[in-house]
Amino acid sequence: MDNNTTKDSNWLASLEMKPFLQEAWHASGFKTPTLIQERAVPLILEGKDVIAESPTGTGKTMAYLLPLLHKIDTDKKNAQAIVLTPSHELAMQIFQTVQQWTKDSDIRSASIIGGTNINRQVDNLKKHPHIIVATTGRLIELIKMKKIKMHEVKTIVVDEFDVLIAQEHVDNLKSIIKTTLKERQIAFFSATLSESTEEIGKELMKEPEIIQIKKDEYAPSKTEHMYILCEEREKIDILRKIIRSGDVKALAFINDGNKIPEIAEKLKYKALDVDVLTAESTKNERKEALKRFRMGKFPLLIATDVAARGLDIEGLTHVIHWDVPRYAKQYTHRSGRTGRMGAFGTVITIVTNREESFLKKIAKELNITVKKKKLYKGEITDAK
Questions:
Q1: Is residue 80 scored above 70 in pLDDT?
Q2: How do beta strands 318-321 and 345-351 pair?
């Protein structure tokens, strides 16, 4: 047994994790816990309320799922844990992870999301799931229908909480939490802390433990940041050439979702297979686009920030900013989709002369080096 496996075994054993979780950990190929896992798991196991901030791609999902799944009592029929998310895609992503990690246990799970058949979800609730992954609107609907006994829920995790405590969501979040008993445990997880986090935390939590892990606490990033300068009208061609420059699996971000259909059509006209992810796409369209993209059926997915929120796409080689992000936090969220968990990744921003100075300002704020590049004979090279 190598040293990594020994440390891995010792960590899980020291936390007295249930055997099925230890086996699933080994089967998943994890070596050692990430910083957020190392700090958050013991606190959640102890029953503490937690507010956790850790960069994108650092293993936050398992930081709360491990203790959540460990604490499930399968002899009971009631729902004991709920994970709340701001989007359908993130809910399904987490639900699939729950299914993967519980397949060798008696834990039952369910997903509760809007835009799907509510009767089917009611039927699923009759199977008495122990853990539910949900979006807030549909969960409130089912609570009002008295299909979920919230007073039996022991733990609520809010993933991407900085979105769910935004003005348009916070009342839903408060309503859900207040349907549970005061002995409940609450955990907030996100890549960034919002200014209102502490205020909401004090209102809903019991002396929460604050975990803040900054990017510089991790090993140096293997993500390369670069930009290509061009005229606005040349952006379509630049994007096409980036995708054609090698073995690329890219997510491109557009600030204005209304532009996406036109951009996609122009790229398709130039014989580039693409799909889109917008807030206006139907649930089935979004699901199908993500499925095909994950399977490698096409090299480019174009999205808005809202539509791509919280998505974890394995093997994503490039993040492309068609538009310069409006602020540094947005650049961080987008760029964190590639180079996850120590993998290599490339972030390319396509800028006009007017946008170049703003990108440099963001880079300075984030303390990253963004290299100027150009496309030459189908390859990305240093710009002289």
A1: yes
A2: parallel
How many whole angstroms separate alpha carbon 110 and alpha carbon 227? Answer: 43
Q: How far apart are CA 156 and CA 178, in angstroms?
A: 11
Q: Are 191 and 54 in contact (CB under 8 A)?
A: yes
- Across all residues in the chain, what is the average pLDDT? 86
| More confident of the two residues 229 and 329 | 229
Q: 341: closest CA among 61, 125, 141?
A: 61
Distance separating alpha carbons of residues 33 and 39, to the nearest angstrom:
9
Cα distances (Å, whole numbers) of residue 311 to 20, 84, 104, 158 = 26, 15, 26, 15
In angstroms, the Cα distances linking 183 to 186, 205, 270, 357 are: 10, 10, 59, 51
Kindly state the DSSP code that residue 259 receives in the 8-state scheme.
Answer: G
35 phi and psi angles, rounded to 5 deg? -60, -45
Task: Please name each of the domains of the chain with its CATH number.
Answer: 33-216 (3.40.50.300), 219-382 (3.40.50.300)
Which one-letter amino acid corresponds to residue 174? Answer: K
Return the closest-CA partner of residue 132 out of 171, 160, 162, 102. Answer: 102
What local confidence, expressed as pLDDT, does residue 221 receive?
A: 61
Dihedral sign of CA atoms 319, 321, 322, 326 in order: positive
Nearest C-alpha neighbor of 111 from the set 98, 278, 283:
98
Residue 1 banded pLDDT, cuts 50, 70, 90: very low
Q: At CA 121, angle to CA 133 and CA 157, rounded to 5?
A: 15
By three-state DSSP, how is residue 133 classified? strand
Name the one residue in this structure whose structure tokens are 């369910």: 110
Residue 360 · residue 226 · CB < 8 Å = no
318 pLDDT higher than 50: yes
pLDDT number for residue 214: 76
Residues forming beta bridges with residue 318, ordered by sequence position: 250, 346
**CA-based end-to-end distance of the chain:** 50
CA distance 10 to 13: 5
